[in-house]
Amino acid sequence: MRIILFFIVISLLFTSPTHAFDGKREGIVIGGGLGVGLLNKWESSYSYQFNNTYLFEEKKMGFSAHLIIGYAFNNKNLITYENSSNAYNSSIFDNKTAIHSFDGISWHHYFSNKRRSFYTAIGVGFYSFEINSKGTTDSKAGFLFGGGYEFAAHYQVAIRYCSGKTSSIQNEIEVKHLGITFTVIAF
Q1: Residue 16 sits in which domain range?
Q2: How many domains does the chain have?
Q3: pLDDT tens digits, residue range 86-139?
Q4: How many CB atoms lie within 10 A of CB 127?
């Protein structure tokens, strides 16, 4: 929450309201999108009595959602708070909703000043894994790699790969997700 407030305050300090949301890829940036979670994977090993180790893993498709809030310093570069999440019904956890989520700071670089531009994104932050909207694991370090194509003013298609580790009381969980989203972005 502090990260979001930080970016809002910085954006308001450095941007004149008359220049906000004027269609140029500069100033305050807010966007979000929905799509397909192509890969949602988690795996964990659990050691039990007498050094017996059990491996749990799950791979599924689901839904993908994306949110960014930040500031574009020029027509090619923006820094944002970014959330990339995938959700699906877990067969291991009795069809309860499982959510893989990356929250962090990311840098987007567009390869052209004009519309119809490819872009890349890279981010660092925290990764979490939840079952049925309950914080079932502790968030730990995570990263985001992605890219996309801005095919018209304010409209983009993006692909994002996020990975990280989380932990429960008894074990560490390795988690990752890959999602494709259609994003609407205001700048």
Answers
A1: 2-186
A2: 1
A3: 988 888 778 888 888 999 999 999 999 888 899 999 999 999 888 876 656 678
A4: 27
